[in-house]
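Dear colleagues,

For the upcoming journal club I promised to circulate an example of a predicted protein-ligand complex. I picked one with aspartic acid because it came up in last month's discussion. The inputs are reproduced below in full, followed by the predicted structure.
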Amino acid sequence: MAWAIIVHGGAHTIPAEKIEPHNVGCTLAVEAGVALLEKGASALEAVEAAIRVLEDDPVFNAGFGSMLNSEGDVEMDAGLMEGEHLRAGAVASIRGVRHPISVARQVMEKTEHVLLSAAGAHHFAEQQGAELCAPQSMVHEDQRRKWEASNKKRGSDTVGCVALDARGTFAAGTSTGGIMHKMPGRIGDSPLVGLGFYADNSAGACSMTGDGESIMRLALAHRIVQSMQSGADADRAAEEALAVMARRVGGEAGCIVIGRHGEIGQAHNSVHLATAWRTSEMTAAIASVKKQR
Ligand code: ASP
């Protein structure tokens, strides 16, 4: 059966000099997922592997290079889900771990819970032997400079991945440092099932990015998958959900989607959405920092 994978590196306005680094980072992440899907690995494994690459790349606001909260600290949110048994795992406001997405997967696989936060999430990560680090070692100097230059609350460069494996199972995940200058303890859409990501084998999967406080109030990821369940294709489901968000609560967002038949979709109402994707029909990944139409 056919497989497919798409990643995003955030919905926002990407400065000209950052376009190539976004394309390169997203392509490397897709290829990490492809290497697994080609060997018959699960969509969940591909999503985790792709997001780990993006969490290591300081171009993106996830893992190392995350945005700083109002106190200059990195607090990260991440979550993932698989569409066969609707299992999900997530961490919120976690500090001092290298790969929040891997801790999220362990929450899914090793606990009876879906979401752990803050000190409890860190304690669990430690028990599981996750890669720990000093919280300040996750701060990249570019983010520190941006934090000093402006105290505006804003998000960008969040990462996500959606995959369909050869057995027909979907998975989706999202990882972020949230928004710059957020209040300590603020949690966005990214680690919340049905808001920042969703996967259901009967319809498809999706990962969101953008203004968390807007995405959350419309439960956008679930809305998109639900609309595919009712027959919309991936692009239309994504576009309609963003239009509802803009009309009802305002805000900017973007999303990546894979539909029931393996079709790749994406939409955004921000100026750019950094993405890269590949399917089993393609010989190389395509990366794009699509301008809004
Ligand atoms: N949605 C993320 C949040 O609100 C930010 C982003 O996607 O850039 O935490």
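Two points we might discuss: The longest helix spans residues 16-38. Residues 10, 155-156, 158, 176, 178-179, 188-190, 209-210, 212 surround aspartic acid (CB under 6 Å).

See you all on Thursday,
B. R.
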